Amino acid sequence: MAAAEEPGVAAVERALSLLAAWREGEAALSLAELAARTGLYKSTILRLLASLERFRCVQRRPDGQWALGPMLFRWGMLYQRGLRLDAILPPALRRLADESGESATFWVREGGQRLCLFRADSPRAVRDHLLPGELLPLEQGAGGRVLLAFAAGPPPPGTDPVVVTLGERDPDMAALAAPVFGGGGALAGALALSGPRARLAPLAEALKPALAAAAAALTRRLGGDLG
Fold first, then answer.
1. Segments forming the whole domain that contains residue 26
2. Same domain, yes or no, for 27 and 106?
3. List of residues 6+ apart from 138 with CB closer than 8 A
4. What CATH number does the domain containing 136 carry?
5. 125 within a domain of the structure (yes/no)
6. Where are the beta strands (DSSP E) in the chain?
7. Are residues 120 and 194 in the same domain?
8. Per-residue pLDDT averaged across 88-100, rounded?
9. Conformational region of residue 58, where left means phi above 0, alpha means psi within -120 to 50, and beta covers everything else
10. Staple 195 to which of 41, 159, 161, 200, CB 3.0 to 4.6 Å?
11. Which residues, in sequence order, are CB contacts of 17 under 8 Å at separation 6+?
């Protein structure tokens, strides 16, 4: 007897669970690894991979392993451009990193995590190391705390919008972050500075005004209102 057709939504969710199986730094996965991580039967995985391959979301390597495909990069670029941030944020981050001496990052919420959307590294040799596209916990670190605290919109006038964390995600690192808003008061993301705790912690209070001003300038550029 032929297997019953999967309901549309269930099939989509299974396909997405396959794409979510890859972790940072992994070039390719075997069928056995995909089965172990998703809990799906290998026969189901092969059917889903065939569909994903047709749309260039995955590609099969000569050794039989599976790698993510170029369509995901294209969708990522469309997502980034759709936020209207690609022309605005990189120069703002570079300026903030050069002026502060620490790494500047723009975070957005991605489900229960935070996504590093743009990044300008500190001009100093000793710094924290992150790349655009990395996901970190939402509940740890200044960027994630800002995304949680200001999800409902701008704070009341007179409220300090800058969050400082010392060694929360990594005991050797510190960070401070401020919210950036778009049209209608929607939270666009979190603008953050991060670096070694021993260097950044004593300067955190002094850097707060510059970070808040940079976040306010980005809010204005995005048509937002600070309230």
1. 8-74
2. no
3. 109, 112, 113, 114, 144, 147, 148
4. 3.30.450.40
5. yes
6. 58-60, 66-68, 103-110, 113-120, 135-137, 163-166, 173-181, 187-196
7. yes
8. 95
9. beta
10. 200
11. 38, 40
Is residue 196 in some structural domain? yes
64 assigned to some structural domain: yes
The two tokens of residue 191 are: 């603008």
Which range has the worst mean pLDDT, 34-43, 66-75, 76-85, 133-142? 76-85
DSSP-assigned beta bridge partners for residue 193 = 104, 176
Q: Point out the domain boundary residue: 46, 74, 102.
A: 74
Q: Which three-class secondary structure string do you get for 13-26?
A: HHHHHHHCCCCCCC
Q: Band of the pLDDT at 2, cuts 50, 70, 90?
A: very low
The C-alpha torsion from 181 through 182 and 183 to 184, rounded to 10°, is -30
> How many CA atoms within 13 Å lie on the side-chain side of 107?
37
Could you give the 3-state DSSP secondary structure of residue 116?
strand
Residue 223, φ and ψ in degrees, nearest 5: 75, 20
Give the pair of three-digit tokens for residue 121.
């590294």
Q: Return the structure tokens found at 127.
A: 């710094």
Distance (Å, rounded) from C-alpha 84 to C-alpha 183?
A: 12
Nearest-angstrom CA–CA distance, 101 and 51: 47
Q: What is the pTM of this model?
A: 0.70
Q: Which residue has the higher pLDDT, 75 or 33?
A: 33
Q: Write down the mean pLDDT value for the chain.
A: 90
Write down the pLDDT at residue 6: 54
**Which amino acid is it at 182?**
G
